[in-house]
Amino acid sequence: MKPKKKKPITYLPAFLDLHEKKCIVVGGGEVALRKVKMLLGCGVDVSVISPNLHPDLARLVKKKALRRISRQYQPGDLEGAVIVIAATNVKEVNDRVTQEAKRSGALVNVVDDPEPSDFIIPSFFRRKDLTIAVSTAGKSPALARKIRTILEEKYGEEYASLLSLIGAVRSDLKRQGIVVSSEVWHRALDLDLLSGFLRSGEWEKAKTVLLSKLKVTKGEKYHKKRC
Question: Which structural domains are found in the chain, ordered by start?
Answer without folding.
Answer: 22-121 (3.40.50.720), 158-213 (no CATH)
